[in-house]
Amino acid sequence: MLVFGPMCDLADPDVVHWMRAFATLSDRERIRDGFYDGPVWLKDVEPRVMPLIAHFEASAVETTEGFETFSGSASLL
């Protein structure tokens, strides 16, 4: 998994964006479930962080043919 962020929203200084890149959708599901169902998130992080978040939104997207990464390669990883 690659993580890009935090990125500040230019239109709203109270909004922060994060992007996560996974090699496959099955990797995304495995990593996501392992983290959000794990003890660190459930006992330590979620109780502290979620009350601070007014709005949470997540989208899953995929790259288009010919997508290039920031390094110029044609792969996310």
UniProtKB/TrEMBL annotation:
Cite the InterPro entries for this sequence: Dimeric_a/b-barrel
- Alphabetical list of SUPFAM superfamilies matching this protein: Dimeric alpha+beta barrel (SSF54909)
- Name of the protein this chain belongs to: Uncharacterized protein
